[in-house]
Amino acid sequence: MSSWSPEQNQSPGGLDPHLSRTLFLLLLIVAPSAQGVIPNPEACQVFQSDNGSSVNCYPPAKVPLQLPADTIFLSVEFLNVTQLPPDFLQGVSNLQELHLSSNGLESLADKFLLPVPQLKVLDLTRNALSRLPAGLFQVSAALHTLVLKENQLQGLEASWLLGLKALGHLDLSGNRLRTLPPGLLSNFTDLRILDLGNNQLETLSPDLLRGPLKLERLHLEGNRLRALEKGLLAPQPNLRHLFLSDNQLAAVAAGAFQGLKQLDMLDLSNNSLTSVPKGLWASVGRPGAAWDMKDGFDISRNPWVCDQNLDDLYQWLVANKDKMFSSNATHCAEPMAVKGHTLLAVAMSRAKPEAGAETGVAA
Ligand SMILES: *[C@@H]1O[C@H](CO)[C@@H](O)[C@H](O)[C@H]1NC(C)=O
Ligand SMILES: *[C@@H]1O[C@H](CO)[C@@H](O)[C@H](O)[C@H]1NC(C)=O
Ligand SMILES: *[C@@H]1O[C@H](CO)[C@@H](O)[C@H](O)[C@H]1NC(C)=O
Ligand SMILES: *[C@@H]1O[C@H](CO)[C@@H](O)[C@H](O)[C@H]1NC(C)=O
Ligand SMILES: *[C@@H]1O[C@H](CO)[C@@H](O)[C@H](O)[C@H]1NC(C)=O
């Protein structure tokens, strides 16, 4: 991409079909150039390519009042605007990407996206949105990436998301979500990445993940989950990366990971797990099997009670120890005899194949 300069677009004489557009761009753009155009610090930068114009507005630029009709990429960031003009996107029907992060946006008009049915990416990171208007996405069938990270959402209503047919990546992290409506995601047939991290979720509806989904990556870290039930993850057999760290998980159901044949990464660190039920690990991370946990797992910073109830985990750990993260920070909290020992050391001493299961742990 090259910086737009007024000379490039003028045909040598005759009626220039782009003339009015060129004049318009002259008014819009900051184009510091050898031709001596006076840079306007309050204007946005425009770059042109065969595909259309990319417009970038950063401080000290102001929100543009008009945009080139061929704009395909628009970034208006760090401007601290709480509202955008209602007709902000009027006339840019080819817009594919819209980046509005780090403003103070408090609300969006319900017709905000109507002029841009081809929009594929919408980034609203770090604004002050507490809700979205119902029907905001009614023409957004092409939108595949929606980022609402670090806003003020406390809940989510299914009606806000109606119309999204191609959604592949939904980022709701860093909000204040306490609950999510059941079946919320059931219409998203292409969803591959769902980020619900760093919210205030205490429980999840058992059918939250129901539907013909293709989820590969699920972020639930930094919430207040206390239990992981059987069945929540089961509708998502393609799940590869699962983040559950920094919750208050004290219970994981024996069948919680059942059916997750692709699981390559599991983070359960910094929870309240003292034990896990027998059978939990049978479905994940078997060496040599297709589902091999190849990107690693982390069960550190849990108050493990290292007694015979963990025999199942010990065996699994020994078989998968090369994929273990933070093994030094994975300690036994109890019983006294092994308090402070690493879980792996205890597992190794108990799971020696020749020694038999009854071998005591060295104190
Ligand atoms: C223009 O669009 C085509 C097809 O989407 C893409 O391959 C190409 O990289 C784009 N060119 C520029 C300069 O953005
Ligand atoms: C936006 O707000 C932040 C924090 O209050 C401030 O540091 C920054 O200078 C502001 N930017 C503009 C363009 O006003
Ligand atoms: C799924 O889509 C149908 C048809 O558009 C709609 O009636 C229903 O409310 C949607 N469900 C959810 C949970 O969004
Ligand atoms: C552990 O998680 C809690 C939230 O449950 C968080 O406040 C804390 O900072 C985390 N600790 C570490 C060491 O990451
Ligand atoms: C973890 O333990 C190993 C072996 O005891 C040691 O070599 C390594 O330095 C330790 N790592 C950390 C981060 O403490």
Key words describing this protein structure:
disordered N terminus; 17 strands; binds 2-acetamido-2-deoxy-beta-D-glucopyranose; 15% strand; disordered C terminus; two-stranded parallel sheet; 13-stranded mixed beta sheet; 8% helix; mainly beta; 363 residues
Helix content: under 10%
Radius of gyration over all CA atoms, rounded: 27 Å
Unreliable segments of 5+ consecutive residues: 1-27, 29-36, 354-363
Strand order of the largest sheet: 1-2-3-4-5-6-7-8-9-10-12-14-15
Order of helix and strand elements from N to C terminus: EHEEEEEEEEEEEEEEEHEH
N- to C-terminal distance: 66 Å
Report the structural category: mainly beta
Mean pLDDT: 85
Chemical compounds bound to the protein? 2-acetamido-2-deoxy-beta-D-glucopyranose
- The shape is elongated
Helical stretch count? 3
SS strand fraction: 5-15%
Main pleated-sheet profile: 13 strands, mixed
What can you tell me about this protein's structure?
The chain is 8% helix and 15% strand. It is built from three helices and 17 strands. The strands form three sheets. It has a 13-stranded mixed sheet with strand order 1-2-3-4-5-6-7-8-9-10-12-14-15, with no helix packed on it. Strands 11-13 form a two-stranded parallel sheet. A two-stranded parallel ribbon has the order 16-17. It is elongated and about 70 Å long. The model is unreliable at 1-27, 29-36 and 354-363 (pLDDT under 50). One 2-acetamido-2-deoxy-beta-D-glucopyranose is lined by residues 49-51. The site of one 2-acetamido-2-deoxy-beta-D-glucopyranose has 6 residues, from loops.
